[in-house]
Amino acid sequence: MTADDEKFDALIAEIRRSLPGGQIPAEVPPPPPAVPAGWYPDPDNTAGPRYGSIPGLRYFDGVEWTEHRAPMQRSQQRQPYPAPPIYVQQNVVAPPVVVNNGGSGLAGLHLLLTFLTCGLWLPVWLLIEILQVAGDR
Questions:
Q1: How much is the pLDDT for 23?
Q2: Which of 19, 51, 73 lies at the terminal end of a domain, its last residue?
Q3: Is 127 exposed, middle or buried (0-12, 13-18, 19+ CB in 10 A)?
Q4: What pLDDT is attached to residue 49?
Q5: Is residue 128 part of a domain?
Q6: 65 within some domain
Q7: Which candidate, 88, 44, 90, places its Cα nearest to that of 67?
Q8: Distances in Å between the alpha carbon of 26 and those of 18, 19, 29, 79?
Q9: What strand order describes the sheet that includes 56-60?
Q10: What is the domain extent for residue 126?
Q11: In sequence order, what DSSP letters do the residues of the chain get, joined into one string?
Q12: Is residue 57 part of a domain?
């Protein structure tokens, strides 16, 4: 037995002492694959030209890509995204609001008379409006 073999045996004995039960597992199972095995769109798309430019599928065994290829069915092909809907905003113009606050509707005439008489009509206009308000009550 060589010195390297003795070191190796000592290392194995130390590992056995540190493990519960003193047993070294015969084989550690591999971790489950991150991506499950199955048919996926071919990353190389080498099957496309072979099948009339239809994108192809390739089998992934969970670890690596295999050489198994198949054409993608028409229903499995990637469809382009539909166009976004177009929203049309219609500007609706409301009719003008007419406010009638109970006046006689002759304010324009009273204003004209006030200007034509250089303000002499203003007291008459105010008197008419005061009498109208008093009459409405």
A1: 62
A2: 73
A3: exposed
A4: 56
A5: yes
A6: yes
A7: 44
A8: 16, 13, 10, 50
A9: 38-41, 56-60, 65-71
A10: 107-136
A11: --HHHHHHHHHHHHHHHHSGGG---S-PPPPPPSS-SEEEE-SS--HHHHTTSPPEEEEE-SSSEEEEEEEPPGGGSPPPPPPPPPP----PPPPPPPP--S--S-HHHHHHHHHHTTTTTHHHHHHHHHHHHHHH-
A12: yes
Q: What is the pLDDT of residue 137?
A: 67
Residue 42 lies in a domain: yes
> Domain ends where: 54, 73, 92?
73
Structural domains of the chain, count: 2
> For the segment 34-93, what is each residue's pLDDT rounded down to a tens digit?
778 888 888 777 655 555 666 778 898 888 888 888 877 766 555 566 777 777 777 777
Average per-residue pLDDT in the chain? Answer: 75
Instruction: Give CA–CA dist 41/27, Å, rounded.
Output: 34
- Give the whole-number percent of the chain exceeding pLDDT 90: 5
